[in-house]
Amino acid sequence: MKKPIEIKNKKASFSFRLTEHFTAGIQLKGSEIKSIRNRDVIINDAYCILIKGEVWAKNIHVSKYKQDSTDQHNPNREKKLLLNKSEVKKITKSIDEKGMSLIPTKLFINEKGLAKIEIAIGKGKKLYDKREDIKKRDVEKQIRREKKRGN
After folding, report:
1. Could you tell me the CATH number of the domain that includes residue 58?
2. In this structure, are residues 57 and 46 in contact, taking their beta carbons and an 8 Å threshold?
3. N or C: which end of the chain has fewer CB within 10 A?
4. Nearest by Cα to 33 from 102, 112, 87, 104
5. How many domains does the chain contain in total?
6. Which domain holds residue 68?
7. What is the spatial distance between Cα 31 and Cα 105, in angstroms, rounded to a whole number?
8. Mind listing the pLDDT tens digit for each residue in 128-145?
9. What is the distance between the alpha carbons of residues 79 and 48, in angstroms, rounded to a whole number?
10. 75 near 63, Cβ under 8 Å?
11. pLDDT at 15 over 90
12. Are 18 and 105 in contact (CB under 8 A)?
């Protein structure tokens, strides 16, 4: 069986304190789905914005599919995210708070073969928060190493 397609934004959990998560569909054009299946996607610098009650993802780089013969491919075009009205209202309410952002955390293909994106509402971390997270991670690694040596 094939390995499931899952592209993660590791930068998101490091730079933001993520609270609520939502799963949305993506409106794709042409051969973008084939590029996603080939894992030719970068979502590290991606972010989401609200325009007229709709959620749009920016800076999701979907490379051109190699066998695509058309020249009308824009790898960084804005992509509309497909969410319920209630989810959009909840997101709008949360984003209106100062310092809150909407960040794509994971892009994946579901069991039906559709491209989905997981977005999260987050608040930017300060530098000292990031340093604290690094220290915690290092301590946990050290504990795991010592347990392995002890066994």
Report:
1. 2.40.280.10
2. yes
3. N
4. 112
5. 1
6. 6-125
7. 23
8. 778 888 888 899 999 988
9. 9
10. yes
11. no
12. yes
